[in-house]
Amino acid sequence: MVNKSKILSDISKMAVDAMGTFSGLKKEVETIVSIRVDKIINKMNLVKRDEFEVLKKLVQKLSNENEKLRKKRASKKKISKVIRKKVKSKRSTKK
Length: 95
What we know:
The protein is an all-alpha fold. It has helices at 2-43, 49-94.
C-alpha cells in the first residue's frame, strides 16, 4: 500500500512538473512566434496604426476643405453668370 501511494505521489509530482514545463514551453513558443511576426511586419514596411489614424484625420480635413472650396467656387460661378446676364441685357436694351 505504501508503494502504491508513493508511486501515485511520484506520478502526481511528474504530472505537475510536466505541466510546468509545458507552460514554460508555451510561453517560449509564443515569444518566438511574436518575434518572427514582428520581423515579417517590419520587412513589409507596413504603417503603424497610430500613424494611419493621423493620416486618415489629415485626409478627412483636407477633403472637407476641398469640398468647401468647390462650393465657394460654384457660388462664385453662379454670381458671375448672373452679372454677365445683367450686363448682356443692359447692352441689348441700349441698342
